[in-house]
Design goal:
The chain has 277 residues and is mainly beta. The chain has 2 domains: 20-142, no CATH class; 149-276, Jelly Rolls. It contains 1 helix and 21 strands. The protein has one helix at 20-46, and strands at 55-59, 62-63, 68-69, 72-76, 79-83, 94-101, 108-109, 115-116, 120-127, 135-136, 141-142, 149-155, 158-160, 167-175, 183-195, 204-210, 215-222, 234-241, 245-247, 252-259, 264-276. The longest helix is centred in the first third of the chain and has 27 residues, at 20-46. The two termini are 35 Å apart.
């Protein structure tokens, strides 16, 4: 810990000067104190820390294949910086360290009558250029992006009669966070297919579906032979799991089900979303 000793000030006979080195001493201590806290958070959440990685503290949501980035805050090279936004670009965003001055505190009048700018503000400006800068949007790493969690979604009983298509299950929808972080997931569904119509000519299908990209992540089919004779009540347990998949931000995932003819009910519906490192 750094500290300026003030116990030796015996006014008015012994006054302690406050020099440029004293001011630098305090600034260095402030920066080191902040850096130690942020490094601890990074190491706890991500398992390691590197001076060459730009860690996202807030904002910096990346879209359009790295070309658009929102404003935010990063920790890079052991120091904290604010960042600016860029959008509508043609190149992957590159971050250039830029110095500006405080418009209120500067310029400062020195004792010799000269005016000088001394209140420097260093910001990483996201820029649409083909080269240059210290890093690109692809290098950004979220400090809070990889915690393990599991969410459970329960849906009401759901009856479909759609002649072969798929219907969305009520309350069985999850959207990945729109924060620029691509994550690993396991998505699971468990429920029961119930019919009392003796649909011997029908086939029941369910799927875990990425509606944003029109992509089936997992699918289960219950064939017509399982539904028995006319007027027989049949209850069939169904379980689906995607296994480990990788999903980008802002993807909507839902459960869909259908029957080739007549109607069928899905009961005790559960969808589990597990995110992990």
């Amino acid at each position: 810990m750094k500290n300026i000793d003030i116990t030796q000030i015996i006014s008015p006979t012994s006054k302690q000067p406050f020099t440029a080195n004293s001011l630098k001493f305090l600034q260095d201590y402030n920066a080191e104190n902040l850096a130690s806290v942020i490094k601890s958070i990074i190491t706890t959440n991500l398992g390691s820390y590197s001076l060459t990685v730009p860690y996202v503290i807030s904002g910096c949501v990346v879209t359009d294949s790295g070309k658009d980035v929102t404003a935010g805050e990063i920790f890079y090279g052991g120091k904290y910086y604010a960042t600016t936004a860029v959008n509508g670009t043609t190149n992957v965003a590159r971050f250039i360290l830029t110095k500006t001055q405080d418009g209120v505190a500067d310029p400062l009048t020195f004792t010799d009558g000269s005016f000088k700018n001394v209140h420097d503000i260093f910001t990483y400006v996201a820029t649409d250029v083909a080269s240059g800068g210290d890093f690109t949007s692809a290098n950004l790493v979220s400090v809070y992006g990889t915690k393990i969690f599991s969410n459970l979604y329960s849906g009401a009983s759901f009856t479909v009669n759609n002649g072969g298509g798929y219907d969305n299950f009520t309350s069985m929808t999850y959207t990945t966070p729109n924060d620029g972080v691509t994550r690993n997931y396991i998505i699971e569904y468990k429920g029961y297919a119930t019919t009392s119509n003796g649909n011997v000519d029908s086939s029941c299908q369910l799927r875990i579906y990425n509606t944003t990209d029109s992509a089936t992540l997992d699918e289960s089919s219950v064939g017509k032979a399982n539904f028995g004779a006319a007027s027989e009540v049949v209850v069939i347990p169904i379980y689906m799991s995607t296994g480990v998949i990788t999903l980008a931000p802002n993807k909507t995932i839902l459960i869909q089900g259908g029957l080739s003819s007549s109607s069928i009910s899905f009961t005790f519906n559960r969808m589990s979303i597990t995110e992990f490192k």
